[in-house]
Design a protein that fits this description.
39% of the residues lie in helices and 19% in strands. By secondary structure, it is α/β, with parallel strands linked by helices.
C-alpha cells in the first residue's frame, strides 16, 4: 500500500531483534514495511566455526526470519565483538534513514554488551545526521538472550500473547543460537516474566528515548506501540 510507513531496526548481531522483540515485529508487519540493518554478521557467535562459516550461517538464519516477517535486511559487515560507532558506519545508516523516513527506529539497550552499546550509538547518531532525531520515535529493546540486560526499567509493554507462536517460529530460524526447543523456552521465560508485570500472558518491554506524552508529532498517540 502506498500509504504504509517504514519501521527501521538497527541491531548488532543477527537474532538481536527476533529475540528482543520478535512478537512486536510480527504485530507491526501488518501495518508497516519492516527494514532491518544488521551491523555485524555474528562472526564470532558459533563455537567451533570460523568467522566466515559463522557469518554465512547467521546471515542465512536472519534472512529466513526476515522472510517470515516480510522484512528487508541489510548487512553492514562489521566485525562481531569489534563494533564501534564510527563516522563512516553512522553515515551509511543515516543514508538508510533518509531513504526510508521511518515512523520509528528500534535498537538495543546500551548497557552490558559493548556491541549493543555501539548499535544504540549508531542508531542515535544516524538520526542526528539525517536531521530527524527530534521527529522520530526511538525505542530500545531488552536483550532476549541470557542475563545481559541490566538497569532496564520498561516505559511501555506490548502484549504478544496472541503472537507468541509466531515468535517461537522466528526464534527457530536461529538454530545456531537456540539449538533446541528447551533453549527456545528458556529464552522466552523473560517474556513470561514481563507478562506477569504487564498483567498479560506474554509481553515485550521497551525503553523510549523520548518521554511518552499525550500529544506529539501531530498524532493522537505519540507511541506507535500503544496502537498495537
Amino acid at each position: 500500500m502506498a500509504d504504509r510507513r517504514n519501521i527501521l531496526f538497527v541491531e548488532a548481531h543477527p537474532d538481536d531483534i527476533v529475540h528482543g522483540m520478535g512478537g512486536t515485529a510480527w504485530r507491526l508487519k501488518d501495518d508497516y514495511d519492516l527494514h532491518l540493518v544488521c551491523l555485524t554478521s555474528g562472526q564470532r557467535g558459533i563455537r567451533g566455526k570460523s568467522a566466515e562459516e559463522a557469518a554465512a550461517i547467521r546471515i542465512a538464519e536472519e534472512r529466513a526470519a526476515c522472510e517470515l516477517l516480510g522484512a528487508e535486511a541489510t548487512f553492514m559487515g562489521e566485525m562481531d565483538g569489534e563494533l564501534f560507532a564510527g563516522r563512516e558506519l553512522c553515515e551509511k545508516v543515516a543514508d538508510i534513514v533518509r531513504r526510508l523516513e521511518p515512523a520509528a527506529v528500534f535498537t538495543l539497550w546500551p548497557v552490558n554488551v559493548p556491541d549493543h552499546t555501539a548499535a544504540c550509538e549508531v542508531a542515535t547518531k544516524a538520526l542526528h545526521l539525517a536531521k530527524v532525531f527530534f521527529t522520530t520515535e526511538l525505542y530500545m529493546i531488552e536483550n532476549g538472550m541470557g542475563g545481559q540486560t541490566n538497569q532496564f526499567e520498561p516505559d511501555v509493554y506490548v502484549n504478544i500473547s496472541d503472537v507468541i507462536e509466531h515468535k517461537r517460529q522466528l526464534m527457530r530460524c536461529h538454530r545456531s543460537q537456540v539449538p533446541d526447543e528447551a533453549r527456545v523456552e528458556r529464552t522466552l521465560e523473560r517474556n513470561r516474566f514481563r507478562g506477569l508485570l504487564a498483567r498479560c500472558d506474554w509481553a515485550e518491554p521497551f525503553k523510549t528515548y523520548w518521554p511518552l506524552m499525550g500529544t506529539r508529532w501531530e498524532r493522537k498517540s505519540t507511541c506507535i506501540l500503544w496502537e498495537l
